[in-house]
Amino acid sequence: IKRDPHEGEFIQAVSEVVHSLEAVLSKNPQFVHILERLLEPERVIIFRVPWTDDKGEMHVNRGFRIQYNQALGPFKGGLRFHPGVNLSVMKFLGLEQTLKSALTSVNLGGAMGGSDFDPKNKTDNEIMRFCQSFMEELYRHIGPNQDIPCGDIGVGAREIGFLFGQYRRLTSQFESMFTCRSLPSGASQLRLEATGYGLVYFAKEILADMEKDLKGLRCAVSGSGKVAIYAVEKLIAFGAIPVSVSDSRGCIIDEDGFDFAKLSHLRDIKNHRKSLREYTKAHPRSKYIDDGKPWGVKCDLAFPCASQNELNHSDAMALVNTGCKIVVEGANMPCTTDALEVFRKSKIVYAPGKAANAGGVVVSGLEMIQYTGRRQWSADEIDSKLQEEMKDIYLKCKKAANEFGIGVGNPESLVHGANIGAFLPVARAMLEQGCV
Ligand code: NDP
Asked: Do 8-171 and 194-351 fold alike per CATH?
């Protein structure tokens, strides 16, 4: 904190982890220095990304790759293209990814990268030129045993395709480390769906412990990107009633709930990069709230799936007033610290993103096994492996919390359990590997 006082998001993420680890550190003082090292990324790469728009005008953006921690396996983590990208955001996401990977059974480390480039309102050719310029530097630092990037906000199938094309061209290696639909081998079934589906499987585990089921429960969802849309799809499949989605311009509330036909309409709107307002034309009982968030809608569960710190103190109060009992984070760190305080006081069960949204890493791990083994699992096989793994992550969080005296009745048990359960394997590996 003294070293980087302006890195708000990073300090917020670190504070949460350190708070959870108090009991661990007092019983295991040898881990204090390990934590100190863990809070410093192994490598920070910052580079210039020049590119030209369709009119021939030159632009320059800043590129990042934070190779956060490799103690458990190759660096692994997303690429984000969004104007809000800066060093603090990259470092917090790198730390979260390191802990997330450690909660899974795949041997991967943590990384994050991206650029303050805004892909909105750019043509496909502009996006392609930007991706090629970005990869011109990034390719030196990545590889299947070194650092494995994947998508995040603003980086979807189109961007991954362009990035992979340039990587292949620069290295002459057809290495399947990016998930890209056009790759004949390597792209796993359900990779795109994995985070959203995994999120819902995680929620199911929480409910099962309360002897409840998703069927008939009302769910408020924010975001309408890769994570949110597949979460909504899985919620519908389980008979839940998802009643909202949102984007950076506003939100849709459909009190009747989305079904598969309505979801297909939402997808169509997003694919054509139109406003969510369009939805109300076909569904007059729904409403669009300009610049609004979905947290005032009556719901049993909330799934924030848009971005960091999207859910603040007053949103948390609104959720409590609607009767919401469980918050499951699809995005990374979507709840502010004072929102979490509201949940704690109101005894709302809260599942942190590093556990609940780990489905993407799980399927990335399965993808790597499929590539090296030159075999493919079917979508059903991947789906059942994903369900098992999300259950294991849930149980790991519960067990770690229990071991340190944080019982099931404590609404924060999952967050403390996730931080402890993730920290211990990383710390042990770092201790074994010496002072590197
Ligand atoms: P996408 O770019 O596909 O979607 C992001 C969605 O959130 C869009 O609907 C976007 O709206 C909206 N959004 C972005 N910023 C804001 C904001 N400040 N306020 C309101 N809405 C906003 O990203 P993903 O779905 O991939 O990622 C969403 C979150 O999930 C991120 O926190 C990411 O780190 C996390 N995550 C993603 C994983 C993945 O596999 N993709 C894995 C684990 C976590 P608009 O369309 O208007 O920009």
From this structure: yes
Q: At what angle do helices 379-403 and 87-103 cross, to 10 degrees?
A: 90
d(C-alpha 257, C-alpha 231), whole Å: 14
Atom of ligand 1 nearest to the CA of 154: 2
**pTM given for the model:** 0.97
Distances (CA, A) of 344 to 261, 324, 337, 410: 37, 13, 11, 9
CA gap 383, 47 in Å, rounded:
38
pLDDT, tens only, 44-70: 999 999 999 999 999 999 999 999 999
Q: How far apart are CA 431 and CA 426, in angstroms?
A: 9
Q: Is the ipTM of this complex over 0.85?
A: yes
52-57 contacts at long range (C-beta below 8 A, 24 or more positions apart)? 52/129, 53/122, 53/126, 54/123, 54/125, 54/126
Cα of 314 from ligand 1 centre, angstroms: 21
Share of the chain above pLDDT 90, in %: 88
Give the N- to C-terminal CA distance of the chain in Å, as an integer.
Answer: 22
For ligand 1, is residue 224 a contact (CB within 6 Å)? Answer: yes
**Tens digit of pLDDT for each residue in 235-250?**
999 999 999 999 999 9
CATH superfamily entry for domain 194-351: NAD(P)-binding Rossmann-like Domain (3.40.50.720)
Does the Cβ of 101 fall within 6 Å of ligand 1? Answer: no
Distance 409 CA to ligand 1 centre (A): 31
User: In a 3-state reduction of DSSP, which class is residue 246?
Assistant: strand
Structure tokens at 147: 């650092």
